[in-house]
Amino acid sequence: MDRKRSWAEPFRIKVVEPVRMTSAEERRRALAEAGYNTFLLRSRDVYIDLLTDSGTSAMSDRQWSAMMIGDEAYAGSESFYRLEAAVRRFYGYEHVIPTHQGRGAEHILSKVLIHAGDVVPGNMYFTTTRLHQELAGAQFVDVIIPEAHDAASNHPFKGNVDLEKLERLLIAHPGKVPYASIAATVNMAGGQPISMENLRAVRELTRRHNVRVILDATRIAENAYFLQEREPSQAGRPIADIVKDTCALSDGCTMSAKKDPLANIGGFLAVNDAETAEAARNLLVIFEGLHTYGGMAGRDMEAVAVGIEESLHDDHIRARVGQVRYLGEKMAEWGIPLVQPIGGHGVFVDARAFLPHITQEHYPAQALAAAIYLDAGVRSMERGAVSAGRDPETGRDRLPKLELVRLTIPRRVYTQAHMDVVAESVLSVYENRDQVKGLRITYEPKYLRFFQARFEPLDA
Ligand code: P61
Questions:
Q1: Does residue 128 line the site of ligand 1, with CB under 6 A?
Q2: Alpha carbon distances (Å) from 199 to 220, 282, 352
Q3: % of the chain surpassing 90 pLDDT
Q4: What is the tens place of the pLDDT at every residue in 3-46?
């Protein structure tokens, strides 16, 4: 008889942080005070926090002890050299420019490589990445495969680039494409991977047009896990080898060390070309800090250096993605509409299918995130029309095909029991879905509006 053999997290818990349960009345008040925006809730009012996997990981005992030897010298910190060595060893890039977090790297990179009137193709937009490209004068063009915009499609590599679309763009804009902006995994598509084969084709195509490939390597270990699982040429290879080979197909990367690398803050830009590195280091001193800390404390750089290594252990990444999949499969079994396949860092609920009675103008995903919070204090995040923002030219709402709520799983933080509570709470909202009302905006900031916008229910 083939008996199922379960596996468990490759760690045990040494420190715990109490969380607070709230009453329905407390949650109603907190949500109204937060303008129906989960970003504006206070964390004390949240029971299970699945807003983001960014900076919310539990660090290991090795990371905490490395922090004690952080070298806080203003210049020439030993901690920087340890970080630089880790990036070179595990990702393979030559020049490492530390930044306070991922968007710091995006800012510097965009300013160095983009000229006004440029066009930047990429496998779906990410909020901060696209904004920095636009602020530097470029137009972002989405060249991801169409399946990525279809929540129900089961394509195994929904992060892949549509090569014909990319080629047409390269031909149409000679000399105007500074780089292809390639994310692994693709956050806004639901944490979906790009295959090695597709990335290699992107590399070859862009090389013919003399265009760089810059990776968003924020969740590259999770990407590698999917390749190990789904791409025959990568089957059985260690995650660390897949990651290194992925990076080798690019000219550089931006990294938010708050995700894969298991740190609470930090990031870097890494490139192979000395000239780009020099220009970046020079801008760094204006916007981030000296080139041997770039906005991080020495101890932060230590935590990142150790975290990079830990993030590439096969047993770590299997448990990490496995936990996300556990939650997703449970919800899918109950008929809750989700982005398929389940992604690497979170479960993405299809708010259009969940709330067909709310039109996109009334922000179904925002309304659903609010309703999920009300049920049991689980905090999630809108990833739909509010996140997409307005077209800078027309000023009109960009209405993306994907209107999603992201239940994002922090690394090494929650247990299977937490996942069960989350799934049961979303199910209870699903069973009462016709009671969820749409929202209207009452306040909207100019940039990245989803962080600080306020809403009220339509019947208010
Ligand atoms: C997140 F609602 N992600 O997923 P920084 N690239 C990629 C990211 O996922 C990313 C950054 C660059 C966050 C935090 C966040 O619209 C939002 O270290 C693929 O956060 O600066 C960040 O890295 C930027 C949440 C960012 C958002 C932007 O939760």
A1: yes
A2: 13, 30, 31
A3: 98
A4: 999 889 999 999 999 999 999 999 999 999 999 999 999 999 99
The pLDDT tens digits for 333-359 are: 999 999 999 999 999 999 999 999 999
Q: What is the pLDDT of residue 2?
A: 82
Instruction: Give the amino acid at 136.
Output: A
C-alpha 363/C-alpha 440 separation (Å) is: 8
Q: What band does 87 get if pLDDT is binned at 50, 70 and 90? A: very high
Active site residue 49: no
- pLDDT reading at 1 higher than 80: no
223 Cβ inside 6 Å of ligand 1: no
Is residue 257 packed enough to be buried (19+ CB in 10 Å), middle (13-18) or exposed (0-12)?
Answer: buried
Burial (CB count within 10 angstroms: exposed 0-12, middle 13-18, buried 19+), residue 454: middle
* Token pair for 276: 């780009």
Sheet of 139-142: strand order equals 95-99, 267-271, 252-256, 212-216, 179-183, 119-122, 139-142
State the pairing for strand pair 404-408/346-350. Answer: antiparallel
| Residue closest to 342 by CA, chosen among 222, 247, 235 | 222
Q: Nearest residue CA, atom 5 of ligand 1? A: 102
pTM: 0.98
DSSP line for 40-87: GS-GGG-SEE-S-SSS-PPPPHHHHHHHHT----SSS-HHHHHHHHHH
Q: Mind giving me the DSSP string for 195-214? A: PHHHHHHHHHHHHHTT-EEE
Is any atom of ligand 1 closer than 6 Å to the C-beta of 276?
Answer: no
Backbone angles phi, psi at 334, to 5 degrees: -85, 5
Please report the atom of ligand 1 found closest to the CA of residue 101: 18
Ligand 1 atom with the shortest distance to the CA of 448? 16
- Label residue 327 by pLDDT band (50, 70, 90): very high
Torsion of CA 253, 256, 260, 263, to 10 degrees: 140
Number of DSSP helices (H) and strands (E) in the chain, helices first? 16, 14
36 contacts 457 by C-beta, under 8 angstroms: yes
